[in-house]
Amino acid sequence: KEFVDTTGFDPRRDVYEIVFASPSGAGNSKKGIVLARGSVNWPSIMAAFKARGTQTVTINGQEFMQVNKRSPGLVGVLDGSILIAGEANLVRDALARRGSASALDPRLVAKADQLGARYDLWVASLVPAEMAGALA
Q1: How far is it, in rounded angstroms, from Cα 74 to Cα 92?
Q2: Phi and psi for 32 in degrees, rounded to 5?
Q3: Category of 21 on φ-ψ map: left (φ > 0), alpha (ψ -120 to 50) or beta
Q4: How many C-alpha atoms does 65 have within 13 Å on its Cβ side?
Q5: Smaller CB count within 10 Å for the chain: N or C?
C-alpha cells in the first residue's frame, strides 16, 4: 500500500502483460528476469526510491535502480511502458540483445497465440512435462 501510495503505480491495475525468463543450466534456478508491460510512471517510482537512498546506474544513457545488495539486481523501464527487473548480468545481457532479430519456432508462436487468446496465464518451458506433476 505504501509503494502504491508513494509511486502511484499499482501492479494489480497498471500491468497488462508479464514475461518471466530464466536461463537453463546448473546454478541458474534462482536467476531470471521479469518484463512487465503497462502504465508505468517511471519518474515517480525513481523519485520514491531515490528518496530512500536507492543507488542508480546508467546503461546506454538510461537510468536503472540497483536493488538487492546480496545478489545485485537492476530495475528500469524501456520505452516508457516496459518494466525490466532481474539479476544485473541478465538485465545487461537482455539490453545488449535488444533490437536484435531472433527466430522463434513457428510452432511456439502459434501455440502462444492460441493460449494467449484463451487464457490469462500460461507457461512455455523446455522442462519435460513429467516434471510438471512434481510442482506444487
Answers
A1: 9
A2: 170, 180
A3: beta
A4: 22
A5: C
* Three-state secondary structure of the chain: CHHHHHHCCCHHHHEEEEEEECCCCCCCCCCCEEEEEECCCHHHHHHHHHHCCCCEEEECCEEEEEECCCCCEEEEEECCCEEEEEEHHHHHHHHHHCCCCCCCCHHHHHHHHHHHHHCCCCCCCCCCHHHHHHCC
